[in-house]
Amino acid sequence: MTPSNPPLKPEYDLVIVGSGGGSMAAALVAKDLGKSAVILEKLDAVGGSTSFSGGVWWIPNNSLLKDAGIDDSYEKARQYFDSVVTYKGPGVTPERRDAFLKAAPKMIDYLVGKGLKVRRPTDDWPDYYDDAPGGLPEGRSLLAKPFNRHELGEWKDHLAMYPPMAALPMGADEFPTLFQMKRTFAGKLKAMKFAGLMAKDKITGHHTVTNGSAIQGRMLQIALRENLEIQRNTPVRSFIVEDGRVAGVVVEQNGQRVDVRARNGVIVNVGGYSHNKAFREKVTDGPTTDEWTSANPGDTGEVILEMMELGAATDCLDTAWWVVTSRNVDGSWPEGVVGPDGTVRPFMHHLDLSLPHSIMVDQDGRRVADEAGAYMEIGERIYARQRETGKAFPCWTIFEKRNRERYPWGNAAPGTTPKSWLETGYMKKADTLEGLAAICGIDPAGLNAEVERFNGFCKTGVDEDFNRGGRVFDRSHGDPTVRPNPSLGAIEEGPFYAVAMYPGDVGTAGGVVADEYARVLKEDGSVIPGLYAVGNSTASVFGRCYPAAGASIGASFTFGFIAAHHSAGSNELSHIFE
Questions:
Q1: Do 434 and 496 meet the contact criterion of CB atoms below 8 Å apart?
Q2: Residue 341, class by beta-carbon neighbours within 10 Å (0-12 exposed, 13-18 middle, 19+ buried)?
Q3: CA-CA distance, 434 to 404, in Å (whole number)?
Q4: Which residues make Cβ contacts (< 8 Å) with residue 259, sequence separation at least 6?
Q5: Of 101, 269, 554, 560, which residue is most buried, by most CB within 10 angstroms?
């Protein structure tokens, strides 16, 4: 049975556009403050980009850290924020930073009180720059506990899910250990746990979801229990503006245009514009395409463009939450990426790119970044190298024999390399590095020199160029049997392999400029009355940095929480910001 939309009212106190990260949190706050709210989702499935994500909140100074006896504080988190978020822009202000750091732990406690079930990572998940001042090696990230999708009843088929992960009841934090199933006892135990969970689901008839679907599945369950109004298949076409104030939206539903008015405000939480090829090409300084993204298919940006028409300021439109992807240089995708419906689901290589006995180089044969480091930084460095030399599209991951014998790549299990990858040219193979360079169009002298230098780092355990393995975060994704540095493995045993790499993403990180209350601002810094924006619809509070797992989702939830309080004129904000 498919749930039908409730009758759409002509007016609400709060209109929330999009059903991603902060939307249901905002609607819950509105209800508790005695305000009416509606969530408008243009797609049939609810959850937005959060449902497609790894399903993590980055929440500094959270209660679970305190319960575990781990030392954190607002002051320590601010020190870390200031040490890693170095970009200076209108979306990165001290006021916005402080609003996030102070409100985030209160937001998560509020949602736990509503029935949200959260956990700390099962395996290590440090802040991405744990060696920076204020960095936390234990990590500040939280995940949703696994959720049985069937508990949603008639709504179960209307929860957005990232297809490659939909049938895998394993948290994103557990995959680095699982990837060592051929190398460590812990990896073998993790594989047994994974198989047991899948068997249990089959026996019980459950469908256990984790990661982003677990976050949004539980949030949807809470929203339904609280009788929050959610309208599916209801895209917003424009804003209603009266006397300079946003007073509502014009939606399309069942082929009809309908005015929906908002007494207190409109919160835009529609994600970014990852799938808007024309706009990305206009604003990105370098090659780009919507084909590389793994974002929710609704991430098309038309509501962001409507806000820009109202005079909203923008920033960082050329950046995204980069997670590199791979494809054949002729533009074709490897087997296993194109689904039965013909939809492309690009491989995301954050974890497997960090494993030993591999490096990523440009066409001069030079390494580009710390391959085991923060994925957004890797994407930013690829674009920087492209601007510098014009030789970073594509980059190439270079593997040697031991990597292919021990570890996964893409959707292939550890120790396997599908024949089709070699036959189609997606993965190149040669007996020598010189031969591999010739096939790929890489400068052979440059590649040989870089590999020789890298192999020296593997012996000493210190990467003098990019500090790969110098952080706890890097090492948590490595192979603990490789010494002296689990992130560094030499490239010296043939045959050798290569795959073309491109800066894929899980969402864009630029958008309209918002203040500490999530109010949308104009270029002159003035507020557009009645208009709020959160999540990937905004220029990130983190600028061009991704400080830890779940940073974007944590910010989306937090600013949705803040925006709902502000739109209602709640006095609670003064306590939240204490």
A1: no
A2: exposed
A3: 19
A4: 10, 240, 248, 249, 250
A5: 269
C-alpha span between 305 and 273 (Å, rounded)? 10
Question: Distance (Å, rounded) from C-alpha 498 to C-alpha 40?
Answer: 45
Q: Helix, strand, or coil here: 111? A: helix
Spatial distance between the Cα atoms of 178 and 189, rounded to a whole number of angstroms: 8
235, two tokens: 């895209």
Question: What is each CA distance from 170 to 122, 178, 478, 515, in whole angstroms?
Answer: 11, 10, 19, 37
Distance, in Å, from the CA atom of 378 to the CA atom of 381, rounded to the nearest integer, reads 5
CA end-to-end distance (rounded Å), the chain: 47
Classify 541 in phi/psi space as left (phi over 0), alpha (psi -120 to 50) or beta.
alpha
Least Cα distance to 295 among 507, 554, 511, 50 occurs for 507
Calculate Rg over the CA atoms of the chain: 23
Q: How many C-beta neighbours within 10 Å does residue 145 have?
A: 13
Coil, strand or helix at 357: coil
d(CA 345, CA 264): 39
Query: What does the alpha-carbon distance between residue 2 and residue 493 come to, in Å, rounded to a whole number?
Result: 56
With the CA atoms of 485, 491, 493 and 494 taken in that order, what torsion angle do they form, in degrees rounded to the nearest 10?
A: 150
What stretches of 364-432 show up as alpha helix (H) in DSSP? Answer: 375-389, 401-406, 419-423
Q: In angstroms, rounded to a whole number, what is the distance separating the alpha carbons of residues 365 and 475? A: 25
pLDDT, tens digit (0-9, with 9 covering 90-100), for 449-500: 999 999 999 999 999 999 999 999 999 999 999 999 999 999 999 999 999 9
Angle formed by the axes of helices 551-567 and 23-32, nearest 10°: 30
For 247-301, write each residue's pLDDT tens digit. Answer: 999 999 999 999 999 999 999 999 999 999 999 999 998 899 999 999 999 999 9
Q: Cα separation of 120 and 571, whole Å? A: 31
Task: Tell me the pLDDT tens digit for each residue of 371-406.
Answer: 999 999 999 999 999 999 999 999 999 999 999 999
> Domains in the chain, start-ordered, CATH in brackets?
10-168+210-263+286-322+507-572 (3.50.50.60), 325-503 (3.90.700.10)
- C-alpha 113/C-alpha 117 separation (Å) is 9
DSSP string, 144-158: EPPEEGGGGGGGGGG
Burial profile 377-399: b = 16 or more Cβ within 10 angstroms, e = fewer: bbbbbbbebbeeeebbbbbbbbb
In contact, 467 and 13? CB cutoff 8 Å: no
Give CA 232 to chain center in angstroms.
Answer: 23
Residue 309 CB coordination number (10 Å): 11
Under 8 Å between Cβ of 141 and 549: yes
**Does residue 232 contact residue 298 with C-beta atoms inside 8 Å?**
no
Q: Which helix (H) or strand (E) holds 397?
A: strand 395-399
Q: What would the two tokens of residue 317 be?
A: 């439109």
